[in-house]
Queue: 2 jobs
Job 1
Amino acid sequence: MTNLENKFNLPEAYVDDYTAFQMPNEGRCLVFGDVHVPFHNVRGLSAMIEHALMCGITSILINGDFFDHFSLSSFDKDPDKKDYKKEMQDGRMLLEKFAELFPNTERFFKFGNHDEWYQKYLWRKAPELWGDPDFRLENRIRANENGFTVIKDKRVVMLGKLPVLHGHEINMRGTTVNPARTLYLKVKHSCVCNHLHVSSQHNEKDIDGKHISTWSVGHMGTEHPEYAPINSWNLGFAVIDYDKDFYEVSNYKIINGKVIRT
């Protein structure tokens, strides 16, 4: 049979290797994101950590937007809050704290759109520095020293058969009612995402009787940021039990410091 890969000897193209990142074969994973350091929510993080310590998690997935990168963004900025050194210091301290509190877990750090602002800033302002590994974000935050495997390039993370996205990998703009339903319409597959700062769930059943569920997870940042002081967001995280054939998602809100399963 003819090899159709390049039957007509066409010029070679740039092709990115886009493959899913497979998490450990089974376990109980704490999934949270949208921390937006240095605008993180201390009370919310404390409630989540306390819950995670009690429920015996085996892995941690920081699912994007750990950093806000406020100073590097293209948006208007309050000069009083423009302190990139503090953002880096606070982020490193938080990663160190997770490593200290959960020494026996496998730990993963996925880049979200805010985390990617760092590399885009370098591409625009200082492309000459991009090739120096000391300037890569994963090295600046000492991820490896704190036992965090970094997941970049908008790769899907697989917990067994369950895909986990940050949410910026697909166009979620215009979501106004139920983020989980929008996620379903985009992927047509059971899936979990962060990015929209709201806890929600949507359920479907296809023509073959297969049950499909999608979940969006709340955030861990300030509840009333300057750019959106009035919003419908909620603090939250998820704990996902999974193996190669099964998964169960426990999606939690944090209200007034109390963890509530949605």
Note: The chain has a mean pLDDT of 93.
Job 2
Amino acid sequence: MNEIFSYPYEAAEIMRCRRKLKRELLEDGTARIKKKIAFLGGTTVDAIAEITELFLLNYGIEPEFYISEYAQWYNDAVYPPEELLSFKPDIVYICTSYRNITAFPKPADPASEVNALLDAEFSRFRQAWESVKEKLACPIIQNNFELPPFRLLGNSDFSDIHGRVNFINRLNAKFAEYAAENEGVYISDINYVSACYGLDEWYDETQWFMYKYALPMQAVPAYAANFAAIVKAIFGKNKKVIALDLDNTLWGGIVGDDGAENLQIGNDLPGGQVYTAFQEYLKMHKDIGVLLTVCSKNDLGNAMAGLEHPDGTLRADDFTVIKANWDNKDENLINTANELSLLPESFVFADDNPAERQIVSDRIPGIAVPAMDGAENYIRIMDRNRYFE
């Protein structure tokens, strides 16, 4: 996998070099599945589709796009033109935003009118989804809504029924409920992505008024990555295993030098809290079915002592396979994959040592090797890369 498509994204380089990156991806010899994706946009979506293509190629998916005319998402969904029908998409993406909400409550509206307005807005989207299911018979990915660029009522915009923040939160909740109850409907959580990016930067009024882009160009890679993660999950391209180094990855310190009793782990030590948080995060992944393995240059006895640290969250029996020896890590990873009857490309390799990461990345095509730089960043790096969407 090309590291430029790993979080944190080098957005400027991705945007500047997108044609070169596409050419390199198509020429790298990867066997890819071909899928058709219809972008039904509420705003200008050309750049989003272009960058989405790069992320999907990196995931092993070669997309072909249908792109609706500007702001024709509703018409194309409810009354699909012959071009869209003959395209026969594998996925329909309804790429809308805050800008596509048709009406918001007015301060003097009675509660009954506000609720009717909310129901009408939701019904418009539900009509589009049900038409796509009937006429195109494919999965639907729908954006939810980012928070507004202003709060007319200040903090009360959240709690007052007339507030735009309140209205958007209620509308997003209706989207979530529908997706939970209807198979084949997925929500791309733009609300979360925009919050991570920062609303002050997300709302670039120049981009909107001049080009009808609902977000700045520098935010497109994060936006596209979020959507592409859902697509790769639908088509079975998720990772399945996290292979973990031990020293300075699962705990602070080197167990063979410092002794298990002196490792930095546990909430009583300021330096240990960050490793405890990471172990708890990994434990949650085990709870949703992700396999955990160990890939560490260590004596097995020292490794086991570290895993039995009284303040640790993870124990030896949380790991499906433990490789703690002095063999090359790429060899251990391949052997682990063979034992699990999985391809090495289904692994995420988490190691604080950049030299080890580079060796593994060079020797095992397709494996994910996030830049685990700084223990305080481990959770964010793993999470934003969406390996287990």
Note: Residues 111-135 form the longest helix (25 residues).
